Amino acid sequence: MAMSAEQSGRLARLLSEHTDRLTERWTETVAASLRGRLSQAELGRQVRELHRSMIDAGRNGLTDLADEHGGELRAVLAELSTNRARQGFSASETAISVFAVKDALLELMEENKADDTLRDFVAFSALIDQMGLFTFESYVRTREGLIADQAEQLLELSTPVVKLWEGVVAVPLVGTLDSARAQVVMERLLQTLVDTGSPYAIIDITGVPAVDTQVAQHILKTVVAARLMGADCIISGIRPQIAQTIVALGIEFGDIATKASLADALRHVLRLTGVETTARRPRRES
Amino acid sequence: MTAVDLGVPDVQAIRSDEDVVRVRQLVRTTAVAAKLSLVDQTKLVTAASELARNTLIYGGGGTAEVTSVEDGRRRGVRIVFADDGPGIADLDQAFTDGFTTGGGLGLGLSGARRLVDDFDIWTTVGEGTRITVTKWSR
Fold first, then answer.
1. Residue A64's Cα: distance from chain center in Å?
2. Which residue in B24, B42, B108 is closest to A245 by CB distance?
3. Among A182, A201, A255, B58, which is least packed, fewest CB within 10 Å?
4. All domains of chain A, ordered by start, with CATH?
């Protein structure tokens, strides 16, 4: 049931006439639901701000949260849910901050009953429901934003390109290699090859739990791209179970050098570049 | 010997790339519980990854049903991939190494068959595809 402009005005009057009592009761209910995880002062400020914008919206004849008079109220609600989401509160805890006003209103209206009290309360209630839903949606949006940010950060974190030796860079891959990550790996590797002028790159797949055709295809494409830039790629970290799986699948790495461990790959590259590694012979006493 | 189911199957919907990862994790957990060797676990997980991706890309999404089974002597894991997609018109061609209608290597379906012990496919054009694979412990 939509609220009429008259009812909206009555709501504003009700809210402003009993400001102290309402905000106090409201803050109390919310504080109980948050169990002391937000300071009383902060909470009081939020409730008073929400209270004030509800009065303003009511005076302007707000009938639906989505219409033009609801702009400021929506902004206040959005800010509230963004804060709650960032501080780690749950969606219900956030929505209760809005719904709590209903209890306070009901108490007040029961004391001053009139003919149209019930009708008014139903209309007020509908508006508060709209506000609650709006809060909920903003909360979800903020959370989705946070998750997307984290996924992006993780993508950056999980694909380091390290310099192993003069002219040798390595990419240790850990976890699932999906298309998005393969893209980041390729970009980073190619850029590092240019930046360091390295002729050799080692792609280490020790941390990749399963190499299927998609993973293999991503690795092959990366190798081909590196070759186009004049760099040679070695794939290392091929464990026995991965080797057997690759054979059964029928994937061919062609003339790409592959090694069981990163150490083998590094030794292979060093030999290619003419660096000899020998164990130091203990000096004999004569 | 006929295979006997041990417990109820775990069903995982395949609707996105993340679901393919979930199928992989579910298969790995079940394979570990069925005491498959590391090589067999890896082979089964890889086969599941290929088939789940096929279900997603070519079948337009579907489900994977993972069950722990036993045939009296040995334990194993059975996975059923089902979709209501367009089906496969030419099975011989689909099982040819290097043939692909997408952008892959064309080894997924044929490779998956080589990675498991039992492989069964049912497909009808316009109705969908059901692939049942089983890997037994040795």
1. 32
2. B42
3. A255
4. 5-155 (1.10.490.130), 162-272 (3.30.750.24)
